[in-house]
Sequence to fold (481 residues):
Amino acid sequence: MKVNLFINNEDVTTEHYEEVRDPGRLSEVVGFIAKGDPGYIDRAVQAAHQAFHFWRQNTLNERMSILLKSAEEIEKNMSSIASVTAKENGMLLGRTIDEVKLGLMDMRTIIELAPSAFQQRIIEDESGWVNVVKRPMGVIACIVPWNAPIILTLQKITPILLAGNTIVVKPSPTASMGVVTILKTMAEFFPPGVINVVLGGGDVGSALTSHPLVRKISFTGGGSTAVAIMKSAADTLKGVHFELGGNDPAIVLNDADLNEVVPKIVEGAFRRTGQFCFAIKRVYIPYSMYDEFYEKACEFTDSYKIGYQLNEEATMGPINNQLQYQRIIELIERLEHSGANLVKLGKQLEPENWDNGYYLQPVIVRDVDPYAEIVTCEQFGPVLPLIPYHTEEEVIHMANNSEFGLGSSVWSSDFDRALDVANRIEAGMTFINGHGQTPLGSKYIPFGGIKQSGIGREKSIKVFDEFIEYHGINFHKKGIN
Ligand code: NAD
Fold:
C-alpha cells in the first residue's frame, strides 16, 4: 500500500516515502507513506483557505447531510479501514473494528447536537435589536496521535467541519494509513480543499502550527509536544485546543465488591495494551483489602494472551512503536533496580514471534511508594501500580496531588458515598464503577482534562464553542440614545 498526501481532493505524490512496519511482525512492511515538508503544508493550508470562503456559505443542514453521507460510506468500508489500521497500529483487530464503530457513533451524536448548538438567538427591546451570530474561524490544524487514530480523528474533525471551518490534518507517522483512507472516503462528499492531509513528523507538524493562515490548532497528543505547539502558535496568536495525557487514579472504597470490580479495573488499565490517554494508571486500595485485591488482579492479568493483533485468540497486542516500547522497558528496568515488588504476567501466544514485535507482558507492581516514578508518570503501557491507603482524606489527597487531571474513577457499592468522593476529585471526568463513558456520558460529558491534561474539550455540545467565533450585531433603534 502506498499512501500519498491529499490536497484539494487530489492525491499528491512526494519525493520521499517512509516505510511502515507492522509492530506485531516487524519483518513485514505494511506500506509506504509520503513524507511532506513545509512546502506541502503551505499548499494544503492555501487550499483550505480558498475552500473556506465557499464551505462557510453552506447551511448547517447541508453540512450535516454531507457528514452523514460520509459516515455511511465509512461504514461500508469498515472492514478494510480496520484491517489496515490494526496492521500499522498494533491494536487488536476486534478492538479496531469497535473503534471505527465508536468513531461513527461519536460522529453521528455530534451531528445530532449541532442544531441546538447553532440555534439563532435574537433579542429585542425598546432600545435595540441584538443578534449573536456563531461564525466559523477558518482553517483549523488538526494533529492526531497514533494510539486511537480513527476515533480521535472523527471526534475532532466532525464539529470543526459542521461549524463551517476547513481542515488540514496531520496524522501520526505510525498510524496514518487508516486515517488517510477515512479522510479520502469522506472528502468525496465535500468540495475540494475542505479536507486536506499532509503526512510527516514533528517538522511537518510545526510548519502547520506556525502557518499564518491557520486560525486554531486542535491537538491530541503528549504534553511536551503541546508546549512546542503553544510556542509556535504564539507568533501569530492562534488559539489552541489540547487533549493531552493523563495519570488517571482509580479509588477503590472499602465496600467495593472485589470479584466484580477487579476485572473491570485491570481492563480499564490494560485495554489497548495500556496505550490510551484515560487508561487507569494507578489504583488506590484500602489496606484491609490490599492483599485480596492484589491476588485477584494478578489472577485476572495472568489470563491475558499476548500476541499478534490479527490473531483472534490474542487479548493483548503489541506496543505501537519502538520509542514507546523502549520507554516502557526502561521504566520497568528502573523499577526492578529500585527493588520494587513487581510481577510479569500473561501468556505469550506465539513465543517464536515474540522478538519480531514490540511485545510486553503486563506488569502489576505492589507495595509501591505513593510518589514513585511509576505512580506519578504517564506510563502509557501495561504496567499498573497498586497503592494502599488508610483514610478517604489521604486517598483524595494522593489522587489530586498530580500535574494531570484527565479521567478518574471511584469503585463502591454505595452510590452516595462514591458520589461524595467523586465530587472531591480534581479531574475533567470521574466515572463511578466503570472507567470510561457510557453512551449517555459520551453524548453529554465534555471530554478532556484540567491542569496539564488539556485546554478545552471535545464531544458534547460544549465542543462547538472551541471552533466558532462570536459576531455580535446590535441595531440601535431610532430616537433612542
Ligand atoms: P506526540 O505528542 O508525540 O505526537 C502527537 C502528534 O503530534 C503526532 O502526529 C506527531 O507527529 C505530532 N507532532 C510531534 N511533534 C510536533 C511538533 N513540534 N509540532 C506539531 N506536531 C508535532 O504523542 P503520541 O506519542 O503520538 O501520543 C501519545 C500521547 O497522546 C500520550 O501522552 C497520550 O496521553 C496523548 N493522548 C491524549 C488524548 C486525549 O484525548 N486527552 C487521547 C489520546 C492520546
